[in-house]
Amino acid sequence: CRAMRTPASMIVGLVMCPCGLLLTLTGTLAPAWRQVSGIPDQPSDLVLEQGIWEVCSERQSSHARSCGQVDELGYFQQVPVRVAQGMMPTALALALLALVAAALGVRCWRQEPRRPLAGAAGLVLLLAGLLSLVPTSWYTHELWALPAPHGSTLVASYSLVLSYLGSCLHIVGGLALALSLYHCCPER
User: Fold this and answer.
1) What does CATH list as the number for 23-183?
2) Which end of the chain has fewer surrounding CB within 10 Å, N or C?
3) pLDDT digits 0-9 by tens, 96-152
4) To 5 degrees, how large is the angle CA 48–CA 80–CA 52?
5) Full-prediction pTM beyond 0.90?
6) Three-class SS of residue 46?
7) Is 131 in contact with 83 (CB distance < 8 Å)?
8) How far is CA 24 from the centre of its chain?
């Protein structure tokens, strides 16, 4: 038997999975899905960073940062935030499972990759990407409707962008790995 090279689609999927996992993990844990600035009756350099787990305040002039701020406006009770709190960790767990399955399926050190396992890992990774894309998209849609001090300036922050990028990498990587299922079908 001659050794078969690992298909490019499997390599793409295997590279995109941990990259997407790292971006999604950072986006999920970092407290900066939304930035609130220009808050009336507060110092002009005060910025609130709201994530899905906590709120931090920072004085930009001194870089003094304080996390664990009290949620006086009911931000964490809002449905898009609650949905993100449930779906983002689920997406991370699925992506981790897909990474393990993809590594076992691709197995570059074997003569033949396990195409069904790699393809199934791709489908799980695709699902993980969709599970993280839904809350980030919904949060972005509701960004200006979520509670904030009246008259303040609201902008999307880096955690939201990282979550989007991680979702996209999971989807592309999942589709690339799912192509392995095509080669499992017998030729007609």
Assistant:
1) 1.20.140.150
2) C
3) 999 999 888 887 566 777 888 889 999 999 999 999 999 999 999 999 999 998 889
4) 40
5) no
6) strand
7) no
8) 3
